């Protein structure tokens, strides 16, 4: 029987909310393509998956290269883009990309890594590549890079 009651009255801005919702729908970074995401760190996998889904992508995901190969081999739908970490246990991202290209030659790719060039160069990858995004990245950087690769698709298995 004791206590305080607070009544909070907030104004409604319906028109402004509709404008914002329309901006999100018409966002040029949005997509509907199917992506295969491979990241061995669970937290980064979940975060990156959520970022991509926010922009409308259908995300198939895996925490291991072996599982990603299984997904690529057994998923009947078209996979438009492979997004993979480079340094992972068991198989690096470049080898994974090459093996997936043997299964699906119409897929493009994006390498992501927090490592510097001196670690990546022995794997034949530089952070200057069109198909590379340096970690950490924000949601907009990821969306721009994915959209750029998908919109300017040039699948060439031998190039990094």
Offer a few descriptive terms.
160 residues; alpha/beta; 5-stranded parallel beta sheet; disordered C terminus
What does this structure look like?
By secondary structure, this protein is an alpha/beta fold. It is built from six helices and five strands, in the order αβαβαβαβαβα. Strands 2-1-3-4-5 form a five-stranded parallel β-sheet, with helices on both faces. The protein starts with 13 loop residues before the first helix and ends in a 9-residue tail after the last helix.
Task: Give the helices and strands, then pairings.
Elements (H helix, E strand, L loop, with lengths): L13 H12 L8 E5 L3 H13 L3 E5 L2 H10 L6 E5 L7 H11 L4 E6 L3 H4 L11 E3 L4 H13 L9
Parallel strand pairs: 1-2, 1-3, 3-4, 4-5
Helix pairs in contact: 3-4
Shape: elongated
Q: Treating each run of at least 4 consecutive H or I residues as one helix, how many helices?
A: 6
How far is it from the N-terminal to the C-terminal residue, by CA?
Answer: 70 Å
The order of strands across the largest sheet is 2-1-3-4-5
Question: How much helix, percentage-wise, in residues?
Answer: 25-40%
* Low-confidence parts: 155-160
SS-based class: alpha/beta
Briefly characterize the structure.
The protein is α/β, with parallel strands linked by helices. It has six helices and five strands. 39% of the residues lie in helices and 15% in strands.
């Amino acid at each position: 029987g004791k206590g305080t009651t607070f009544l909070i009255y907030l104004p409604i801005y319906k028109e402004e909310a509709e404008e914002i919702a329309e901006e999100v729908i018409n966002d040029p970074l949005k997509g509907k393509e199917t992506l295969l995401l491979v990241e061995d760190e669970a937290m980064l996998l979940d975060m990156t998956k959520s970022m991509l889904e926010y922009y409308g992508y259908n995300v198939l995901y895996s925490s291991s290269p072996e599982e990603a190969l299984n997904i690529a081999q057994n998923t009947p739908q078209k996979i438009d883009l492979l997004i993979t970490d480079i340094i992972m246990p068991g198989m690096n991202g470049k080898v994974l990309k090459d093996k997936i290209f043997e299964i699906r030659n119409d897929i493009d790719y994006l390498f992501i890594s927090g490592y510097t060039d001196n670690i990546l160069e022995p794997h034949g990858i530089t952070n200057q590549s069109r198909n590379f995004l340096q970690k950490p990245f924000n949601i907009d950087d990821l969306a721009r890079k994915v959209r750029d690769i998908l919109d300017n698709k040039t699948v060439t298995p031998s190039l990094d």
